[in-house]
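WARN retry 2 of 3 for item q-0093 after timeout on previous attempt; input resubmitted unchanged.
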Amino acid sequence: MSATPREVITRATDLVRSLLTQQTTPAGIVQVLADEQLLNPTVWHASQVPADDADGLVVWRAEHTAFPLGTYTTPEDARAHAEAHFRSVCRTRPTLAWYEEFPDASTAMALYATYGDSEVVTAYRVVPLTVLDHYNPDGES
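OK item q-0093 returned
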């Protein structure tokens, strides 16, 4: 079974902490990480690391009026897809901006378009989703 991003990060962090207490060169640290199979071509983006109380991988869904456009590992890619879709159906070229929908409660973002002096919210959103690595019958439903 492959390790979750959190498990890999935890293992690497613990290993680096122990290596920092020793007289080790950077090359030595890299070698130990490679020996522990913690170096992998897959690089985890910081936005993929779940919060301490979460149980899974965070991905980002670009959507239009709640219809999914695509799911991505970074919010930047999800926003790029939503913007490209918006521009493909919009004949004008407004200035676009992203704003958090609920700054204190969520990282979901809405796309706004500015036409002259008027800024309007569009039907495009980017929503974080947690992909669980296992089913927990006692977890949220």
